[in-house]
Amino acid sequence: MKNFGEIFKKFRESRGLRLKDVAKVGISTSQLSRFEKGETDLTISKFMLILDEINMSIDEFMYAVHDFHRDELNELLVKVRNFVSTNDVEGFKSLLYFYMELNPKREKFHQINTILLKIRLQDLSGESYYTEQDLIDLTDYLFSVEYWGDYELLIFMNTLDVLKHEVFMILAREMCRRSDFYKEIPTNRRLISTMLLNAYITCIERMQFIDALYLEKQLNQCFFIETEVYERLVFKYAQNLYRYKYEENTKSIIEMKKCIAALKLAGSNNLAKTYERHLEKVLEN
After folding, report:
1. HEC assignment per residue over 41-87
2. Structural domain boundaries in the chain
3. C-alpha to C-alpha distance for 66 and 63, rounded to whole angstroms
4. The pTM is what?
5. Please, what CATH class does the domain formed by 4-65 belong to?
6. Which of helix, strand or coil describes residue 126?
7. CA-CA distance, 261 to 143, in Å (whole number)?
């Protein structure tokens, strides 16, 4: 474990704050000095107090603790997106085999991450990788967590398309309830929005229109602000997909193509290609 005190000291000093400036929250200067030297630890409540005193979030601090790298799951997802966007099946296989051979510090999360990799590789390659037991283990884990945070949201939104519809909708509704506590956190709010968009599109593809309307209602409550352009475009794309599938409205195809064109205009070429492939499959069917 890294010396939290040493890292804290660097951020304190970078803000031009003295020990006594921070210690006024009820921690003695000597206690704070020992913490920064790695001679003693602080309780979580006191640690949160001194973070507030230097105007730093816990997420920002932990990012520094991890040498300014994202957490393990986010690092994996970046690699997955790269393999998918370039259709690099062999590279993806190498990642899966390498990851499976690692000696995990946290076995449960390593198992869930591995299942996610298997699901996405199978979708890309068309070969079989995950098992029915993998899906049982995945859903058992998600049901076991009372309050969903970033980790559970990321896992669910990247695996929901392979779950049986009944299980998928139970989890989607549970997600809305269990993650409600975190909706005021901007990063979590965007994760929830993206998960709902993925779920909405999945329901439409499965012709489960009543469930799709439930998710559309949840998305309307998200109230995407103007800077959330990607979310607005995908939501508009999905709404037109609904009209095309449910109402057989061919004018909706033009609207979906406009959304894809907007992604291209913004320079989001890989995303645009993903939705182009998706629209091609829709029209083929």
Report:
1. CCCHHHHHHHHHHCCCCHHHHHHHHCCCCCCHHHHHHHHHHHHHHCC
2. 4-65, 224-285
3. 5
4. 0.75
5. mainly alpha
6. coil
7. 39
